[in-house]
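Long-time lurker, first post. I've been practising inverse folding by hand and with some scripts of my own, and I keep getting stuck on stretches where the structure tokens seem ambiguous. Below is the full token string for one chain I'm working on. Before anyone asks, I'm not after the true native sequence, just a reasonable design that respects the backbone. If someone could post their per-position residues I'd love to compare against what I wrote down in my notebook.
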């Protein structure tokens, strides 16, 4: 039931004169009603918060009779894409749904769950998270509220013990408000896997492959055996510049070879369109990583400062890709540092 709006007061606490002007009184009432209804409409379903509605297109793309995915924007996170710049997928088994990744805001998680419910009324039993970068797991709140079990690699536990998750969340509350608000919380996994694992659900066999440390220490892929679909997470980028960050690029290249050797019929990338030709469509990620390692490795061998090395490098092969301006310099710098560590015999890059 809507409460009566507070009495409107003028300056110095004097009545505003609404009783003497019925039209003004009606206008104020309608304005208050519009605000109240607007807040009700914007309240996140099951999130207990007031958020902006998701207006980006999350229409699922069907890959097989049982497998769908949603494809995010090709760029970096922005208010324009409302944080929808990564992929997620779901598998409708005989009596349950398995989701891979949960997108980058609680509101997007709710929107993805709503799309799933348009296709099936079967419950979402499990959510497998490829890695704990914000654009892949901030939507978990919606699925936890729906009763799903969250599965991730054991290395996530180490990451959650650092200050990095809180720092990233604080940044997202600024850069993605009002889709990430103070009520957004970090959802930890319910179950950790250490190495490869498998489970059977609803007549389908799911294989989890540990690929880290590569893009992150906790990289997980998921193969739906009967469908021949491999969810690769951010091991594979398509249609935009890969985000390298503090990755172990040497191990990442090895993981790409292992992925291709599995010969999946379809690969769902972490960013960009799904692939029906794994070896062909791994080329962008593989070639970019190899180029970074070659150029930055040569600079380390020649003992060049990073700024000089970056300036002399011909980036034209990749400069037209979405996210180049936002990510390339940081990618190159982190690979430069990791190549220094490799030259000294230390560990390769981490997060």
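-- Answer (accepted) --
I ran through it position by position. Result:
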């Amino acid at each position: 039931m809507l409460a009566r709006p507070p009495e409107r007061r003028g300056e110095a606490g004097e009545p505003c004169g609404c009783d003497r002007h019925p039209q003004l009184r009606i206008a104020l009432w309608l304005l208050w009603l519009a605000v109240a209804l607007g807040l009700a409409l914007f309240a996140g379903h099951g999130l207990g918060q007031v958020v902006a509605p998701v207006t980006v297109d999350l229409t699922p793309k069907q890959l097989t009779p049982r497998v769908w995915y949603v494809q995010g924007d090709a760029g970096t996170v922005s208010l324009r894409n409302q944080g929808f710049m990564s992929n997620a997928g779901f598998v409708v088994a005989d009596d349950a749904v398995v989701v891979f990744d949960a997108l980058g805001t609680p509101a997007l998680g709710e929107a993805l769950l709503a799309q799933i419910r348009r296709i099936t009324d079967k419950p979402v039993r499990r959510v497998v998270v490829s890695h704990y970068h914000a654009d892949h797991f901030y939507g978990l709140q919606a699925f936890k509220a729906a009763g799903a079990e969250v599965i991730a690699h054991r290395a996530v536990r180490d990451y959650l013990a650092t200050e990095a998750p809180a720092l990233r969340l604080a940044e997202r509350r600024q850069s993605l408000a009002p889709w990430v608000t103070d009520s957004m919380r970090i959802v930890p996994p319910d179950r950790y896997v250490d190495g490869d694992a498998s489970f059977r659900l609803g007549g389908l066999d799911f294989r989890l492959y540990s690929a880290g440390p590569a893009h992150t220490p906790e990289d997980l892929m998921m193969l739906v055996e009967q469908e021949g679909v491999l969810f690769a997470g951010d091991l594979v980028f398509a249609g935009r510049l890969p985000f390298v960050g503090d990755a172990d690029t040497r191990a990442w290249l090895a993981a790409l070879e292992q992925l291709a050797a599995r010969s999946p019929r379809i690969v769902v990338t972490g960013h960009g369109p799904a692939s029906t030709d794994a070896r062909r469509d791994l080329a962008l990620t593989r070639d970019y990583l190899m180029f970074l390692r070659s150029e930055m490795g040569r600079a380390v061998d020649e003992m060049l400062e990073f700024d000089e090395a970056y300036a002399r490098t011909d980036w034209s092969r990749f400069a037209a890709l979405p996210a180049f301006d936002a990510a390339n310099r940081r990618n190159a710098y982190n690979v430069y540092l990791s190549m220094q560590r490799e030259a000294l015999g230390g560990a390769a890059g981490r997060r």
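A couple of notes from the structure itself: The chain has a mean pLDDT of 87. The chain has eleven helices and twelve strands. Happy to go over any region you disagree with.
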